[in-house]
Amino acid sequence: METEITLQIILVKPTKDVDFGLQKGSGNDYETIQKQRSDGQDLFFKFPVKIKGEKKDLLPKFSGHFVQGPANNKFIYIDIGTYAGQTNTAWSRRLKIPLSGITWKDIDKLISSPSHILETIVPGTGRDGGPNCATVKPFAGWHLK
Q1: How many other CB atoms are found less than 10 A from the CB of residue 39?
Q2: What are the residue ranges spanned by the domains of the chain?
Q3: What is the 8-class DSSP label of residue 123?
């Protein structure tokens, strides 16, 4: 089985005057899309991911242009500052958002109600006052909306 679902990431109050964008592709062969310059208000990123596998598999398998990482540890990158193509900034970071916790039950709900999406809300500013980076911790997970 292969299907596509929609995910949404909300970055809460990210660092002002910094560019944030969704990474499409991986390694040196990527582009930053949905680029937004923060004014301190929440930023939203909405995108599709592919689901592969069978329900007999413990968890769904994720793929697509936005999915990164090894088979057992998939995630989404938000590019920040120079990684998002911004030239007039001191920030060069990436925010790693795990795809963990999404179950077949969640997928079934999305398929039966296509207007729904899975959403996660993560802090946009780190403890140092700069853009949040590395793997989101603690990660609240994905929720049906």
Answers
A1: 9
A2: 2-144
A3: E
DSSP 40-69: SS-EEEEEEEEEES-TTSSS-EEESTTEES
Rounded CA separation 9/112 (Å): 22
Q: What string of pLDDT tens digits covers the 145 residues of the chain?
A: 788 999 999 999 999 999 999 999 998 889 999 999 999 999 999 999 999 877 777 889 999 999 999 988 999 999 999 999 999 999 999 999 999 999 999 999 998 987 899 999 999 999 999 999 999 988 999 999 9
Residue closest to 23 by CA, chosen among 53, 49, 41, 5: 49
Cβ–Cβ under 8 Å, residues 72 and 99: no
Q: What is the DSSP letter of 14?
A: P
How would you classify the pairing of strands 92-98 and 134-135? parallel
**CB of 61 within 8 A of CB of 71?**
yes
